[in-house]
Design goal:
The chain is an alpha+beta fold. The chain is built from three helices and eight strands. The protein has one domain. The strands form two sheets. Strands 1-5-4-3-2 form a five-stranded mixed beta sheet. A hairpin with an 8-residue loop joins strand 4 and strand 5. The longest helix is centred in the middle third of the chain and has 10 residues. The protein starts with a strand and ends in an 8-residue tail after the last helix.
Length: 159
Amino acid sequence: MRELRCRAPDHWGKAEHLDPNSALRLDGDFLSEDFCVIGGEHFFVRCVFDIPVHGMPEKFGYGVWSTLSRENFERYVDGFDDGKYSDMGPWWGWFANSLKGFTETINQGCWVHPQLARQRPVISLDDEGHELAMAQQDGISPERLLELYAEYGHAPDVS
């Protein structure tokens, strides 16, 4: 899978120094590859938003963040290493990144689907009429994929 990733939730607003996952703390501020806590009150997990690309065997993915309630965040952390969750969800959250090339995505209601085998959770938007949700459902053309890469400065060199 090809992926563009957001290094932190848009709410983070600080330098993106990453701590190891093992240093997770639930008070104050914390950011790692997989977990984010802001002010000991707001909890985020890194997820994947998959989009099928017409004619391609692999999906395109965004590495994005979603909020979770403290209860579901703790549930996710407890099962993170072994992929065994007391509740496989999906869990409600709020999409925590604004993605270029789509109608505003930040703070869209979403569902976080935990995965087995230490795979990051998969997100689906609650609003099925949102442009991003429709792309996830119907797929996009390879040309649209190139446009999205270009939005992030990854346009192919045609010289």
